[in-house]
Amino acid sequence: MATETLTLGKALNAGLRKALEHDPKVVIMGEDVGKLGGVFRITDGLQKDFGDQRVIDTPLAESGIIGTAVGLAIRGFRPVCEIQFDGFVYPAYDQIVSQVAKMHYRSQGKVRIPMVIRIPYGGGIGAVEHHSESPEAYFAHTAGLKVVTCANPQDGYSMIQQAIASDDPIVFLEPKRRYWEKGQVDVDAPLAEAYPLHAARVARPGTDATVLAYGPMVRTALDAATAAAEDGRELEVIDLRSLSPLDLTSAYESVKRTGRCVVVHEAPGNLGLGAEIAARVTEECFYSLESPVLRVTGFDTPYPAARVEEEYLPDLDRVLDAVDRTFGW
Q1: Which of 62, 177, 181 is nearest to 122 (CA)?
Q2: Cα separation, 295 vs 310, whole angstroms
Q3: Were both Cys, which of 95, 156, 170, 209 would link to 11 (CB 3.0–4.6 Å)?
Q4: Has 141 been annotated as catalytic?
Q5: Helices (DSSP H) in 75-194: which residue ranges?
Q6: Peptide bond before residue 314 is cis, with ω within 30 degrees of 0
Q7: pTM for this one?
Q8: 53: exposed, middle or buried (C-beta count within 10 Å: 0-12, 13-18, 19+)?
Q9: What's the distance, Cα to Cα, between the start and end of the chain in Å?
């Protein structure tokens, strides 16, 4: 096993490179993805090595990017679209919901749309308006779309390749504030041996309470578990990884052992993923629960200005407070 220490951003870049090398039908397209290498440098060097017919700088038109990709996918290509920032995806929302999500169904299974829509999402980088959003619930709610999110470099490397290889349209959410965090990546492991794309994973085993998180909040949950251990509480942290379809098998097993569950995400709580997860956990684990399933989320307001975003984002203290409350019942 050959491992390298990579940041999440570099791991995604390596995964995209592998996909381009493996399949000549893979094309990358988006604003500034070519010569610049993307605003976060995720596509750095790819246009130089694969040419401007496969790594394409597009006009500043998100609906045009997605609409063009739909046509390419129908003709047998595997387009990978980059939406430069999460808040820029909304001009393309009609294309994603009306065409990308429905084409396979509308054609009675005759037409596949094998495309990936990469979206850097979430807060924590001090960005201005429209540059920090958490739009995952919009897409996870849409039948016909699959939605996944990575939380560490190894998953970034393997999941982007798995998403590109899939015949289904996939919204691939990348936690932008974690782009610079490092981890070990097995760059030689065959893709067939990678952890399943739509499966959750236990990020840290524990016995006293279950914390469910995804994307940028996995690191926060792990930090909370480390802090809780100093007080003698062992939190089990589960990285959901796939938001649609949701894999809650390991969550159910965990909650039946711990009796307590806290769900954490950056997006607002109202009608968020946490509500669906809490409902399913309650239905499946009702007789094992020692307290209600609690949620730690962003607030039901527009995303705030950069100077106060730390007041909005769930942090270690809010997670630990929710865990404490589960022990108060």
Answers
A1: 177
A2: 18
A3: 156
A4: no
A5: 93-95, 103-106, 136-140, 153-165
A6: no
A7: 0.96
A8: exposed
A9: 47
